[in-house]
Design goal:
- The structure holds three protein chains of three kinds.
- Chain A is mostly helical.
- Chain A has two domains: 82 residues, Winged helix-like DNA-binding domain superfamily/Winged helix DNA-binding domain (Arc Repressor Mutant, subunit A, Orthogonal Bundle), CATH 1.10.10.10; 79 residues.
- In chain A, 66% of the residues lie in helices and 11% in strands.
- Chain A is built from seven helices and three strands, in the order αβααββαααα.
- In chain A, strands 1-3-2 form a three-stranded antiparallel β-sheet.
- In chain A, a hairpin with a 2-residue loop joins β2 and β3.
- In chain A, α6 packs antiparallel against α7.
- Chain B is α/β, with parallel strands linked by helices.
- In chain B, strands 6-7-8-3-9-10 form a six-stranded mixed β-sheet. Chain B has a four-stranded antiparallel β-sheet with strand order 2-1-4-5, with helices on one face.
- In chain B, α6 links the parallel β7 and β8.
- Chain B is globular.
- By secondary structure, chain C is of the alpha+beta class.
- Chain C folds into three domains: 175 residues, no CATH class; 206 residues, no CATH class; 208 residues, no CATH class.
- The longest helix of chain C is centred in the last third of the chain and has 54 residues.
- The radius of gyration of chain C is 33 Å and the shape is elongated.
- The two termini of chain C are 35 Å apart.
- The chains are: A mainly alpha, B alpha/beta, C alpha+beta.
- At the A-B interface, α3, α6 and α7 of A face α6, α7, β9 and α8 of B.
Chain lengths: 172, 247, 610
Amino acid sequence: MRDVILSLLAKEPAHGYELRQRLMAALGPAGAALNPGQVYVTLSRLERAGLVEAKEVAQPNHPDKKVYELTASGRERVGQWLADVTWSKVAPVEFHLKLVAAAAAHLADSVALVDAQRLELLRELRQLQELAQAEPPDSDGSLLLEGASLRLQADIHWLEACERRWVERETR
Amino acid sequence: MNQVIEARGLVRRYPAEGSPIRAVDGVDLTVEAGETVSVMGPSGCGKSTLLHLLGGLERPDAGELYLGGQRVDGLSETQWAVLRRGSVGFVFQAFHLVDELTAVENVELPVLLLGGSRRDARRRAMELLERLGVAERAGHLPDRLSGGERQRVAVARALINQPLVVLADEPTGNLDSRATGEILRLFAELREARQALLIVTHDARVASTAHRLLTMRDGAIVAQTRLGAGTSAAAVLASLADLGGEG
Amino acid sequence: MRSLRLAGRLAARNLRRRPGQALLLLLTLTIATGVLGVAMSLYGSADQPWNRVWRATDGFHVSFNVYHPPDEPGDRALVERLRRRASQLTRAPEVVGVGGPWTHLYGRIQIAGGDEDLTAELRDPGPYQVDQPLVTAGQWLGQGDGVVLESGLAATLDAAPGDTVTLQGRPFPVRGVAMTVSRGRFPLSRPAQVWVTPQTGRRLRQLGMTPEGFELQVRLADPADAAAFADAHRSLEVSEGSSSLIAFLETWQHRRAESHSDIDILAGTLFAVGTLIAILTIATAAVLIAGRMAAQIRQVGTLKAVGVTPRQVVLVLLVEHLAIAAAATAIGLGIGRLLAPRIAATSVTLLGTPEPPPLTWTRVAIVAAVAFAVVLLGTVRPALRGIRQSTLRSLVSGARPPRRPGRLARLVANLGVPLPGVLGLRSAWRRPGRLLTNAAGLTLGVAMIVVALALRDSLELLAHTPPEPGHAASDAAVTVLYDQIRAIILGTAGLLLLLGTINAVIVATFAARDAARNHAVLRALGATPRQTVTALIVSQLGACAIAVVAGIPLGLGLWSLMDGGDLPPVRLPAALLLLAVAVPVAFAGIVGVPARLLARQPVAPLLAYE
């Protein structure tokens, strides 16, 4: 979250509300699920870390607003973040371990686990598709939805591979 | 209960070295009016053969099959052909448009086969092509159309006689991502219009649009589930918006 | 080089697995080479029997012949001069034997109630250094008025020693029958010939026969010198004054070549017919070769991986097809050697049992050249396409991209033609080239039938016209010859029809295969098998329609060329109408077979692949 907020300030200084707007625009429908408080919490942490500085701006008829701006180290940090190519979680490690543990301890039928998970993913996929259909095709939000949809498809493919492997093991 | 398709104990065998292979091994299934059913399974599980059996493109070696309440598993080739004209629409992975006919001529074919007049056929075909968004390509030969356009023409052809059921065999198999999206939208519309639809597919996106999902393995149906809106939108969105551990 | 061998191994393996197309090609080629082979073995098959009689009779090497019309003033003196000059011949150093000069009398003999021209050769009883006729019945000339008949004459009269013949209206006893090579055999060689003693000759002159010339024959030390000897003495051939006097030198080889006109005509006809069939075979061969090549090159993807190029595949296939052509040549020549004696035996000019001449390299080369030419010409187009194509797709589909349906097609569709017909016509329209080549073959077949029909009618007319005076029997013989030629033409028409049928079946099979996917789609949409079969038949009928429409006028044209512009008899239009109906019906029936067979195939597999 911290790097994301920093990068959103790179264009121009903004106050918390604006930042939240920008974020929600980028996330599309997912933006609605965003925790409103998280943005402000992150901003104060960034201020403490010296990556942003806050300025009070006087407003007519309104209480003073806090406007946040990137510091030099903050800008540097954004540059580093942009150049960083680490990818977040590649493999569904947790589920994989779930299957192994269940089989080893005979806690549950592995194939049934896989089937159940697959069905759930299919339901989520359907949900995503419905959301995608409601979005205008060129929006940032639709791109995010496509990314999620493709990942789900990849996961479903992997689950099918899991099913094949575990079925083989059972029939042996 | 208004059942468009009912199958009991369908079996289809193929000769092979040693004992014959059972491509479809005792399948029971039903498709209700207005329902979308998808059949998923690994390649070689027999789902395409099942679809062929349901549409009369192959004959079962055993079992009963009813189409719109009529018993059809014993029909001759000619009787099946006549039945298919008004009752079954096909959508294939390879599109299978007649390459010597233009798009609109392809769509007209089922009407002409049913004995409709040329004018009536042309009018209905153009209407459908309009609805599916390919009307400007009506006069083109199939080799001038993109994959997505061809499949839309094929869907128009399948729908034109308002069949009891549309059977689709891997309809997005030869399509790129965008064309797949177009077809998905089409199928969603068909679902809204309460057209009975059976889709054989290994594409999860396509399968997820169905009301009911059948899983096939080794010629038999091993699972059947309703795919209603399970997880709420909120939960999905929440996971989307999860921007990582660090607050 | 290794890749070439690999391509060869693949071709051989394909050949073993699916020999059908190769065998069909062999069959169609053999039809052509068979006919040519018969022609090759027929031509000159009378030579050996002739040679035997020539040797047995001490036949001439060079002959000096003088013919003059009777009773022209000045001629008798000329003839005497020629006789004296002819005796110079006998003094030439190469001459080892002399026969004659023998006088020829001209008159009439009665055959089957009619008169026939006759030559009587005056011979003292002999023996002779040259041309001792071979007596086959009775005895040679001797006491009395007995005449010796030439064997062909005797056969025509069905006369044996002891019978009588009527010369100049008077009966003369038959003393014997003999064969000679100095004359061609009656009735194809005119006039008829008898040998008589000088006394009988005097009596015949009293009865009105006139002297018409003489013949002097010599034998040389080496028969091969005959031509040189004749050339050396060409001066004898100069005729002075009277233009109706003929004096010429003839070698034995020339006389032999002229003696069997019926066999020559038959052989020539068969050769022409065989070449015609060969030309038509090119179209069939092209279709078969293209099919084979497409099947091979479909594997080019795997072949490329081991370094084999489409060019090499084409090369290997060409070699394979040339091998088939060689086999067809051998089989055709074999057929020729078997059949030719049987055909030759019907000849009236034979002097014994016919023997097929030894197969010289020239004769083998001619037949082989035709077979190879057919294969090469049939390979050109598919080979060029195969080498030029770098992508697999167009080869696999085998067809150019479909054309926009033209106005004509739309017109036909709007005419209310039922759907299967429209689809059939559309797919025929796609490949005009193939349509025309099929049509060409069928057209020629139809034309030949028309010619055969016209010939039969004309021969019947001929049979009813009274013969010219003096040519009764020989005209009958000529009619027999025409009959044989007509049989050959009918046979050819039959062969062409056979070829046309094979072609139609092949083309229909390929067309059905090409259309298989489209027809599977149609059946999935609800077209019955019968509808798809109809569509296929209709698509092939185009070629048939062209054949009937073009073939009948072509046949009539060919006939008028042969007949010299005479109008065909009135009966023909009825037969033509029958032909115009029968051919398409038969064609539809034949084409329906592969169509129906392929319609029985299950639909699903065709729809499974791209």
